[in-house]
Amino acid sequence: MSLGPRLEFRQTQSLVMTPQLMQAIKLLQLSNLDLVAYVEAELERNPLLERQVEPEGERAGEGEADAGAVRERTSDADLDPRADQVHEREERVSDWLEERLETSRSAIEDRLDTGMENVFPDDNGREPAAPMPSGEGPAYSEWTGAGGGGADGEGYNLEAFVSAETSLADHLEAQLVLAVSSPVERLIGHNLIDLIDEAGYLTADLASVAERLGAPLAAVEKVLAVIQAFDPPGIGARSLAECLAIQLRERNRYDPCMAALLAHLELLARREFNTLKRVCGVDDEDLAEMVGEIRRLNPKPGLAFGSGILQPVVPDVFVRGSADNWLVELNSETLPRVLVNQAYYSRVQKITRNEREKAFLSDCMQTATWLTRSLDQRARTILKVATEIVRQQDAFLTLGVQHLRPLNLRMVADAIGMHESTVSRVTSNKYMATPRGIFEMKYFFSSSISSSDGGEAHSAESVRFRIKQMIEAESPDDVLSDDTLVQRLREAGIDIARRTVAKYREAMRIPSSVQRRREKQAAVAGG
């Protein structure tokens, strides 16, 4: 066998990730908000793209008709004896615009037939306000400058009427100005307010604050006590127990028994009511009343002044109809409407001067074409996947969550002839509005739990719903343990392990049977 170099030709097929394909994949997995932002950026960058605006139609026709009527009325001098005066005034205005006007003060005064001080008052200094007639108040514009234009010549300021959202820091600083008069204490107060987090808790140590400010620790504690008396109650606390104690003092409910309860909040979290009764020295009725008082408090008072803006969920797909005929349609409000301006492209192409301009124009045309095609393909793919999901989960739409079927990406991908990755991208950050509410598309994909009698498998989401229903229906004397839940589920034909039941229960934030029994017994004793 001899070794030597040689040339060979091989023909192979491979998927090349072109920029256009990467763009299509990126658009497919974007949410409707991200898609709008992406399209807006492309509209600013690409001169060949433009928004598709709906024609005004009738409104434009009405405007033209009104204009025609006006032209007819103004062109017939016989109908109005003042028509000659109108024509004379129009001729005078046209002469005014065409001739070269003198800009001297005397020429302007002669042209306007009035003095300059009556039209353009000197702005060397503010003129004193004219005395108001008795019984009349100043106009709104004289107070704010927002009515009919400000004093600086700006137009009507609508922003003056917009109420800005008050933050927690602004709310506390407004109270600090009224409660503290000493400049030193105000400085300490501003620093303490800056250290309060969004939940309303002080996140720094007072000793470090005093050392940083060079102030006595007693002065810092004094100012903190003032801040803790501000609204909302519980603000400026350094722990949960202190926050609850501040609110209880506000309600005049802080006594030695309540103080002992706040000192052992970990026992309350574990529902160890017998130990709490012994520590606080109260009976069942008093303990239930104290626990009810604690539950009515706000553990995070600062969240009432949230700075974040909640963005409502906008569905991408609407599902309407009944069990016999479900109608699936896209939400047209979430679909950006863009067009390629072919006329502008043809006009600019004729005046390109060099290869660089031709390359730029060609690149813009190619990008715009691919964007419109990608948007159309994205809409078609979302509709196709949503239609298949509705077909697979028709029992859920008709009967409820307990009839949700097991479904995975491969089942949908095989049904519509696409790859699993495409289905995964389509269902990411997309929402579907159904007669049973708005759900994320990922919600309809659930793992399967085999049936104990060899029948049809059950969806994991429907099993969670069954567990929640059984726990909500239990009585204080018959609290279901995880083993009992497993037994009842197997009697219903669901083959499930105990650890799976415990995992589902913890995922739904449901406490154990021991904690639920203690809580229900305490509620019965308090009632």
TrEMBL record:
State the family named in the UniProt similarity comment for this chain: Belongs to the sigma-54 factor family.
- What are the TM regions of this chain, as residue ranges? none
Spell out the InterPro entries in the cross-references.
RNA_pol_sigma_54 (IPR000394), RNA_pol_sigma_54_core-bd (IPR007046), RNA_pol_sigma_54_DNA-bd (IPR007634), RpoN_core-bd_sf (IPR038709)
- The RNA polymerase sigma factor 54 core-binding domain is annotated at 158-344
- Where do the segments described as Disordered lie? 51-91, 118-138
Q: Where is the composition biased (Basic and acidic residues)?
A: 51-62, 69-91
Q: What does this protein do?
A: Sigma factors are initiation factors that promote the attachment of RNA polymerase to specific initiation sites and are then released.
- Record-linked Pfam families: Sigma54_AID (PF00309), Sigma54_CBD (PF04963), Sigma54_DBD (PF04552)
Q: What protein does this entry describe?
A: RNA polymerase sigma-54 factor
Outline the extent of the RNA polymerase sigma factor 54 DNA-binding domain.
359-518
Q: What is the lineage of its organism?
A: Bacteria, Pseudomonadati, Pseudomonadota, Alphaproteobacteria, Hyphomicrobiales
Q: Which keywords fit this entry according to its UniProt record?
A: DNA-binding, DNA-directed RNA polymerase, Nucleotidyltransferase, Sigma factor, Transcription, Transcription regulation, Transferase
